[in-house]
Amino acid sequence: MSGTSYTYSQQLMGTTVSLKLFVENLTAVSAVFNAIEQLEDRLTVNRYHSEVMSINHAAGKQPVAVSKLVFDLISQAKAASLLPDSKFNLAIGPLVKLWKIGFNGHSIPEKDEIGRRLTLTNPHHIKLNRTNQTVYLAKAGMEIDLGAIAKGYIADIIKLLLAQYNIFQAIINCGGNVLTIGYSPITADKQWHIGLKRPFAEANNLLGIIHVEDKSVVTSGIYERYFISNDQLYHHILDPHTGYPLNNELHSVTIISNNSLTGDIYSTIFYGLGIRQGLSELKKKQNIGVIFVTRDKKIIIQSNQHFTFELTADDYQLISYS
Ligand code: AMP
Ligand code: MG
Q1: Atom of ligand 1 nearest to the CA of 177
Q2: φ/ψ (deg, to 5) at 299
Q3: Ligand 2 midpoint to CA 267 (Å)
Q4: Can you say whether the dihedral through the CA atoms of 307, 310, 312, 318 is positive or negative?
Q5: Which of 120, 177, 188, 249 could form a disulfide with 94 if both were Cys (CB 3.0 to 4.6 A apart)?
Q6: Rounded to the nearest whole angstrom, what is the distance from the C-alpha of residue 167 to the centroid of ligand 1?
Q7: 31 CA distance to ligand 1 centroid (A)?
Q8: Atom of ligand 1 at shortest distance to CA of 267?
Q9: Residue 245: CB partners within 8 Å, gap ≥ 6?
Q10: Confidence grade of residue 2 (pLDDT, cut at 50, 70, 90)
Q11: Coil/strand/helix, residue 100
């Protein structure tokens, strides 16, 4: 084990982004944080101006030409939205904006308004023209929201950027999204040790430790953003069919994958599929592993040989499929 690590943090993308390196390279560090800032500027829908917002502002009016980077992400997000039984929907924007969960002014919307907004969330109405690299939202009021996947996409780009600085061992943490690069120089087993959070508890209160090498570990948890009204919890992952927060047996889903965009897309998709359908889907998708944490204190794992898990919470039951 060679020991020294260098950790840098900044508030970006609505969360604390931290980067841990094992060489001191301030040029690389500032390149990373500058790149994240620029990518956020293009992808955000939480400000008036961004490339994605220019598409949203032109909804029902005209196609908008965008950069290759934004076009590629939107194409992948549309494809994920059209998968069978996918509850991931990049056109969810009008509902996210209505609920404002995790932002100031959240409230339970009127049923009629939810119904009206549901008509503006059909991913088929997002028209992509690859030749001209344009995106057109066919109905006025439609809005693309990449909040579920932008961090994963950005983390993958940062990995490529670090490689340009000959950095092949690092860990990037963007809130619930962790991307590990290479093997860990600071643990005996050379694996990275990533904490699995206990739902609705302090950040350092863990259910267990995920051991991985050169993998992305992305969690979608309903405890990340929510509000409570009349004893009912309303969280930030919305069901594109009902317009209400997805209601199932899960507190969180963690996806372990090679690339972080895949993890980000599938953490939302598997949250939507739930355990039974999720596990059967995983038999077909050997390139990812999953950890479901249920409301009734079960941790259900299908590793597909991508990770090992060490349980530390004695009030949870571990059910493991390898
Ligand atoms: P994540 O934290 O990666 O699970 O993403 C949650 C964020 O994705 C929310 O805060 C919304 O911006 C957005 N979102 C909510 N519901 C959906 C959905 N069904 N499909 C795609 N994005 C969603
Ligand atoms: Mg996600």
Answers
A1: 3
A2: -115, 115
A3: 5
A4: positive
A5: 120
A6: 31
A7: 28
A8: 4
A9: 101, 222, 226, 233, 234, 235, 236, 237, 238, 239
A10: low
A11: coil
Retrieve residue 98's tokens. 């209505």
Residues 154-180 pLDDT 10s = 999 999 999 999 999 999 999 889 999
> What is the atom index within ligand 1 of the atom nearest the CA of 218?
3
Residue 58, phi then psi, degrees to nearest 5:
-95, 10
27 and 164 Cβ atoms separated by less than 8 Å: no
Tokens of 85: 């039984």
From the CB of 81, is ligand 1 less than 6 Å away?
no
pLDDT tens per residue across span 62-106: 999 999 999 999 999 999 999 999 999 999 999 999 998 888 888
Q: How far apart are CA 281 and CA 274, in angstroms?
A: 10
Adjacency order of strands within the sheet including 134-137: 64-65, 134-137, 126-129
Q: Give residue 101 CA to ligand 1 midpoint distance, Å.
A: 10
Q: Is the CB of 235 under 6 A from ligand 1?
A: no
Helix, strand or coil for residue 104? Answer: coil
At 220-242, the pLDDT tens digits run 999 999 999 889 999 999 999 99
Residue that has been written with the tokens 């992808």 in this structure = 43
Query: Helix, strand, coil proportions of the chain in percent (round to 5)?
Result: 30, 30, 40
Place of tokens 């090679």: 258
Query: pLDDT tens digits for 100-154?
Result: 888 888 889 999 999 999 999 999 999 999 999 999 999 999 999 999 999 999 9
Beta-sheet strands, E only, within 161-269: 170-174, 177-181, 192-197, 206-212, 216-221, 226-229, 232-235, 250-257
